[in-house]
Design brief:
The protein is about 40% helix and about 20% strand. By secondary structure, the chain is of the alpha/beta class.
Length: about 375
């Protein structure tokens, strides 16, 4: 199955002007996407290949190639100098596409020597519109079961998914995390990773996790930040509308791979979170908007799962339901007290109706009308 990635056309437009960096989770398809821009094997250089490594270190990159892909080049101590030199000298004739692990995103923030010379894109797992422009329900079911990472989704077997989960967790804890920071308690972080899937969609208690792992809350907070940097999980924070007594700091946690989650409702909520986060990142990376994905919760524990904010203005709010029941009373409460123009209650059924500024509708219909990528 040949799946065109959502960000490809934007990358193609930018390559003629600046370098392009592609980041994102391990095994999300960064190298596969990058290779679609080249026509010959000698346009691809991987730092982990010994011959390619020597060519990179000696700056033996032919500007007549027109497009080159540099994979994992951030492992080279002088990678910024290399890229700055390539761009400053050859940018009128050579397009440079850089891919890499979470370290690329981490290290690029460490200095401004490349400022103004590149655009950064975040590649997400497959989403519904990316796979199926007809937005069929069976495609949603496959995404729900196997997640959006290319290997398990395309293979489509439970056996492959189980093995992939096992191998990915091992690489996240014992390779990606260790490559990014020096951490000694890897076995405890593995326990933390195992514990996170059961906390998806709920307000995350760092103190509770610290008690379970018998380490300090500051240590758990640090580990969570590292897991976010290596694209294992992400947190969203509450939206403080003026007319509600909103909670201030409590975060909710989600995984980049929702197929790890056993609970049916939590997995569906995480699938929706993944689509909305991709929507936000796409508008940031391609259009330059300031986007936020948040949730609504007040001190009386009324809650709406998500609110999408563009340039500090809310666009719409989303509540996830696995069934087709009546409109949540929390939606009605907040719709009367916030300036959010549209509320959606999305589900996995077929009902679709409008009640004021609240629309109850299937997930597939929601993706179509809000152009969720």
């Amino acid at each position: 199955m040949n799946i065109a990635r959502t960000i490809r056309d934007s990358i193609k437009q930018d390559l003629g002007k600046k370098m392009v960096f592609i980041g994102g989770p391990r095994q999300v398809g960064k190298t596969t996407l990058a290779r679609t821009f080249i026509t010959e094997e000698n346009q691809y250089f991987n730092w982990d290949d010994l011959q390619d490594r020597e060519s990179i270190k000696k700056h033996e990159i032919n500007p007549d190639l027109k497009v080159v892909v540099l994979d994992e080049v951030h492992k080279y101590a002088r990678w910024r100098t290399l890229l700055k030199g390539l761009f400053d000298k050859y940018h009128r004739k050579l397009s440079v596409l850089v891919t890499g692990s979470a370290r690329l995103d981490h290290f690029r923030r460490g200095g401004d020597s490349l400022f103004g010379r590149y655009h950064y894109y975040r590649l997400h797992p497959f989403t519904l519109r990316e796979i199926d422009r007809h937005l069929k329900r069976e495609t949603t079911e496959r995404l729900f079961c196997f997640g959006g990472f290319p290997e398990p989704y395309l293979e489509g077997t439970v056996r492959t998914l189980r093995r992939w989960h096992r191998e990915r967790k091992n690489r996240v804890v014992y390779q990606d995390l260790r490559d990014l920071e020096t951490v000694k308690e890897l076995s405890l972080i593995e326990l933390l990773v195992d514990a996170l899937s059961s906390r998806v969609g709920s307000v995350l208690s760092v103190r509770s996790l610290s008690e379970d792992l018998e380490v300090s809350p500051n240590t758990v907070a640090r580990w969570l930040r590292i897991l976010e940097m290596i694209y294992y999980c992400y947190r969203i924070y509450p939206y403080g509308a003026p007319r509600i007594r909103a909670v201030k700091k409590s975060a909710k946690l989600y995984l980049w791979d929702w197929s790890e989650i056993e609970n049916y409702g939590s997995r569906f909520e995480n699938l929706v979170a993944g689509h909305l986060l991709k929507f936000c990142h796409l508008l940031e990376d391609t259009e330059g908007h300031s986007m936020e994905l948040r949730y609504i919760r007040d001190t009386d524990l009324r809650e709406i799962d998500f609110v999408v904010i563009q340039n500090k203005k809310p666009l719409f709010a989303v509540e996830c339901k696995t069934g087709e029941g009546s409109i949540s009373r929390h939606i009605r409460y907040f719709s009367e007290r916030t300036g959010i123009p549209k509320y959606y209650q999305i589900h996995r059924g077929t009902k679709d109706y409008l009640d004021g500024n609240i629309r109850v509708l299937p997930f597939e219909t929601f993706c179509r009308i809000e152009n969720i990528p």
